Structures are given as structure tokens and as C-alpha cells.
Amino acid sequence: MPPRRVARVLVDSPLPQLDRLFDYAVPDALAPSAVPGVRVKVPLRSAGRVVEGFVVEIGDDDPADRPLSDLESVVSPVAVLPPRLYALARAVADRAAGGAGDILRLVVPKRMVRAEKAWLAGAMPPTPVVPPDAAQRAATVLDAFPGLSRLLHESARLVVDAPPRLDHLPEGTDVGGWAVLLAAIAVAALARGRSAVLVVPDYRDQEQLWAALASFVPEDAIVRVDSRQSGPERYAGYLRILADAPCVVIGSRSAVYAPAHDVGVVAIWDDGDPLLSEPLSPGVHARDAALVRQELEQSTLLLAGHTRTTDVQRLVDAGWVREVTAARRASPRVILSATREGEARGSRVPSAAFAAAREALSSGPVLVQVARPGFAPSLVCAECRTPARCGHCGGALRARQRGAVPDCTWCGRSARGWTCVSCGSDRVRMSSSGSERTADELGRAFPGTRIVVSDGEHPTTRVDGRPALVVATRGAEPVAAGGYRAVLLLDGDRMLQAGDLRIGESCLRWWSNAAALAAPGAPVHLVGVAGRLARALATWSQPAYARSELAERAPLKMPPTARVAMIEGTLAELDAAVSAVRAAIPMLDADAVLGPVPVEGGQTARALVRFSYAQGRAVTTALRGAVVTAALRTRRPAKGRPPGPRNTLKVLLDVLDPEL
Predict the structure, then answer these.
(1) Hey, is 598 helix, strand or coil?
(2) CA–CA gap between residue 616 and residue 632 (Å, rounded)
(3) What is the DSSP string of 354-367?
(4) Alpha-carbon torsion, ordered 290, 291, 295, 300, to 10 deg
(5) Which of 332, 473, 475, 478 gets the highest tally of CB atoms within 10 A of its CB?
């Protein structure tokens, strides 16, 4: 009797106890279509239901006569889970004490039948051909960084400080110099017959990168991974990525897992942007996933930005990542502006910055960066300056326009008849200016000048070269044709007041990205900020600032000098999880565990565990085991028995700003 075929299936389930491969017998009728990578439906004995999953492996059964359930059906004949993607998902999940299924849920789109049938009926995509002139242009761009072309062939880990300028494309569009650099790197990989994966934070960066790539290669060689796509569009793009033909993948954080054919380079732009940190379980940052991928596939990893995060600087100091510098150093003309003698103390726009804006408006647009959107994001009592709070939920009150009734930023209720809890006054005043109020004030100061507002409610990606005051919140600055003739960076002192471990890094990144949009030689005024952070921007020495930040955090064992796991659950669950970690690492430091402290009204508690990178595998294995153990205790009870306590244990590793 021939041995029966067995499929090892990863069940699509968020339950941690199901994060492993299950064996199922393959019926003879399904044998031709049940191949590794396809979607299947399988029965779950414990739940008495049928769920979907992926076939990871196919093999013959072992000699033992063990009972196995049969595969229910094959959902699709297309193998959407190649071995390289499963290996990457498994490795990333293990590093983050999470489940491989959670990773794959972010990467593999839902099946769209019509899109799949159209793909199967069409011809396979041809290998893209890079035009000779495009290859030459790409080589010229790379030559500005000595040794970069050679290192791209050596499966290296690289960090590049992108040029802080705008480049004019042949089609007449202006994009950031960083976009042209990443496009040239992708073209170099494509010319060698290999794919490239380019990861950027949001749609603004995607549009610039798409325009830069389209100036080098045909658009059918570019595949976009975008949350704004429809289901059929995303699934069709994923099928193109799976094809045995190289391509260039551009997209947001989940694109870092794209299983493209023979990936030669994975590049990440602006890894300090929090949008690259996945909020869904297991919460892996795109940079960390890319590092794991580079080890598995031996492709080239390139991290680029106008600033240097402390995470990347730690890798550089450890010799794990290599710096590549430009042959000619370039930097914007940054001016540190402060109020002069005779000016109103605390003036929002000093006279020097005001004069620079007036002069620049004669030739083109001027960028004004502000901290927050809206008109007046926060209000205070006009008498005693106590922050105005909502009487219903305690949220901060705001004003949407001049003279408007305040409303709550949390619950949205109007605060008619508000009175101060401290002094009883019923009058409020504005304590901060948002983008709309700033635009209103500048419109009065520069009558007849065109005003453009760019923020979350008024998204603008591009402005023309005509004179205009462009008021934008941090990260929402549009690209101006020919660059901004002046840049004013306001509210720097307010930005730095945020209670965030990385607020210095974030501010330097916001300011540097805005300064890079300036025209050559245009003044960039940083208002109201002094000290080490201001000097780093003025001298364009962001890596030096990152090194100093690392040096200050090392004695305190603050990330990224150490890894941090945040554990949340009941006190009993926390105690079990911490005990599991201590059992796995007997030599764990005495001060490694911080907490627990109560959260969510005292129902659960939270603790932090600090550990070295060398201890990472042991800690994550122990924490994952604790999560599975807690989940097994709260399984659905047998019929007639009362339900047990709900599992609340959660584990999140490498939090950007861990707080108890």
C-alpha cells in the first residue's frame, strides 16, 4: 500500500495556540491541486468547524498509523504563499513573539475571483528591459556616492544620507532627490535581472517615487502596494509580484514582505517615520522586518533618509550597517531665528524670518511649517490660564474658527455655557495656533498673497511656482515647483514639549524633511529653538546627534541600546510571563523588569522587560510560550461548563516609546 500524502497546513487563525503547522491527509481527488502555497479549507476538530489555511509543505506520511483529517477542499489553484514568504513570516514572527499568520494576513490579499481568472487567462509578464539611456542616467546618480554601485552587488547592509534637494525630472516634475536615488538603485537591480522592493511611509512619498521610477523604466515594471487600492487591484498586483519576472515594488510598510522574484535590493526611506511601525499584532517595524529579510535572502538592504535614527546609528556603531557618503556634501542654508531686542517677547515670527518671507514671495512660494492642524487646537481660561476641558469626558476644548463655540477634541460635544473649574470664568482664549489660524494671521500680514493650507483635512501634494504662502503641518508639506524660496519652521519649542522619548529625533526629522524642499540657497529659518538639536540642523550633522542620543541612553538601558518588551494582562498572567523569562535567562539583570502598574481602570496591569539583543531569542520564546499558555487556559469550555476568565495577555516588542 503506497504511503498517503500529507499536507502541512498553517491555519488562518489569530489564536496563538494554532500558530503551528497541522498535518492533514490529502485525498486522491485533491492531490493534483494541493501543492505548497495554495489556499485550502480544513476542519478543526476542537472547534468543529472548517477554516482556511495555506499548504506549507507536502510529503509522505510517516510509518506510524496515526489518524489524520482530510483536506476539505482547495480554494484556489494559485500558490500565493511561496516558501520564501513563509520563511520570512516565520522568522519575523519569532523575533517579535508573534504568529506567522498575523504577518501573512498583512501581506497576502484576500482572493478576488475575477482578478484571479483574468490573471490566469492572460500571458505571463515579460522580463522588463531597462533602456540604455535610463541605465546610464541611473549610473550617473549612483556615481555621486563612491562605492555604492559596487556595494549593491555585494549583499551589503547600507545607510545613505539622501541629498537634501529637489530634482527636476525630464517630464517636468520636481521630486525629492531621495526619490531619484532610490529609483536609480531599483533600476540598477532591474538591469541585472533582479527585483527591487522600495518601502516608504505614505502616499505622498509613493507619488514622488512613482514619478521618479516612471522616468527610468516602463510603468508595467512597477507594482504598487497601496492601502488605497481596491481589492481586485491589490490582488492583481500581488499576483504580478509572484510571477517569475523581476519588477520594482513600491509601497508602505507591508510592502517590505513582498515576495518578488529574486530580490536584489530592499530599500527603506525615512525609517524614523512612525507610519513604518505596524500597529497590528505583532507590531513589527518595517526596518526590523527588512533586517531579518536581508539575513534570510542575502539581498542588499539600504536605509536612506535626511536624518539618522538612533536605531540605525546603533547598527552603524556595531559595524552591522555600513555608511555610504556622497562625494560632495550638500546642506540647506539654515538660520536660527530668535526675537531681537525691541520685538514682542515670544513673537511667533521674528522680524528676520518675516523679512525673509516677504522677500521670497516676490519670486515664488514660501513654506511655513506649524505643529498642529485646525484653527485653535487648544483653549485656556482667559482669566487664570487653566486648560479648558470638556465637562462630559475631560477632553481638551478647541475652536474650529474665530468666534466659534468650542467643542471637545475627544467626544465632539459643543461646550456651550462652559465655565472654568478653577475660577468660574466663562471666557476662553486661544493658547495655540493651528494651520488654519496661522493662515488667517499670515493672510492679514501679507494682504493679496495666495494662501495654501496643507494638513490632514486639506491634503495637498504639489504647488506651482507662483508666489504663495503654504502653511503645512509637519509631514504634510507639498512639493513646490522649483523648490520653496524660503522655509519658516515655526512652533519648534511647542513640538519639543511632547512627552516622548524620541521627540528630539522626530523634530529633527520633521525639520530636515521640510528644509530639503527649499530651493538651492533659499533660507530656512528655525524659529525659537537653540541648543544641540538646533545646531545639528544648522550644521546638517544629524548622524552626530544620533550618536550623542545613543551615548545618553546607554547608561539608562533605554531603547534602542536595549530591547524592551511591553507585557499587558492580569497580575497572574504578568507574573507567569515574567517568571518564564527569568527561567529562560537566569542571569537577567535585577532591574530588567519594570512594573507592573495598573491600566484600564485597574482591570489589567502592564510591565516592561528590558533585555540585551543577545538575549532576544530566549526572551521572545519564553514570552510566546506564556501567551500560548494563557490562551489555552481560556479555551472554549466543554458543553455545560461555565466559561473561564478571558485571556488578556498581550506582548509587544521593540515599542518606539515604551511607557508604563
Answers:
(1) strand
(2) 24
(3) HHHHHHHTTTSEEE
(4) 70
(5) 332
pLDDT of 201 above 50: yes
pLDDT value of position 501: 86
CA 631, CA 419: separation in Å to the nearest integer? 49
3-state secondary structure of 546: helix
What the block records as the C-alpha cell of 535 is: 545646531
Hey, what amino acid is at 242?
A: L
Max alpha carbon distance in the chain (Å)? 99
Report residue 252's pLDDT band, with 50, 70 and 90 as the boundaries.
very high
Residue 38's Cβ-side half-sphere holds a number of Cα atoms within 13 Å equal to 19
* 482 dihedral zone (left: phi>0; alpha: psi -120 to 50; beta): left
Give the separation between CA 508 and CA 307, rounded to whole angstroms: 7
Chain segment 320-331, per-residue pLDDT in tens = 999 999 999 889
CA 23 to chain centre: 36
Q: How many CB atoms lie within 10 A of CB 562?
A: 18
CA atoms of 327 and 145, how far apart (whole Å):
6
Q: How far apart are CA 212 and CA 206, in angstroms?
A: 10
pLDDT tens digits, 24-59: 999 999 999 999 999 999 998 766 789 999 999 998
Q: What does the buried/exposed string (b/e) look like for 533-544 if buried means 16 or more CB atoms within 10 Å of the residue's CB?
A: bbebbbebebbe
Exposure of 417 by Cβ count < 10 A (0-12 exposed, 13-18 middle, 19+ buried)?
A: exposed
In the structure grid, which three cell numbers stand for residue 311, read together?
Answer: 536605531
Distance CA 128, CA 190 (A): 8
**Does 282 sit behind a cis peptide bond, omega within 30 degrees of 0 on the bond before it?**
yes
Q: In Å, what is the CA distance from 20 to each residue of 49, 56, 148, 484, 647?
A: 18, 11, 41, 54, 19
Cis peptide before 596 (omega within 30 of 0): yes
Q: How far apart are alpha carbons 518 and 366 in whole angstroms?
A: 9
Query: 595: closest CA among 616, 619, 569?
Result: 569
What's the rounded Cα separation, in Å, for the pair 480 and 157? Answer: 33
C-alpha cell at 88: 520570512
Please check whether residue 258 is in contact with residue 107, taking contact to mean a CB–CB distance below 8 angstroms: yes
Rg (CA), the chain: 28
* pLDDT band at residue 642 under the 50/70/90 scheme: low
Per residue in 536-553, pLDDT tens? 999 999 999 999 999 999
pLDDT digits (tens, 9 = 90+) for 557-608: 999 999 999 999 999 999 999 999 999 998 888 889 998 998 876 788 999 9
Cβ neighbours, 10 Å, residue 73: 16
Q: The pTM is what?
A: 0.91
Q: Is-contact 402 361, C-beta < 8 A?
A: no
* Kind and range of the H or E run holding 454: strand 451-454
User: 489 - beta bridge partners?
Assistant: 369, 526
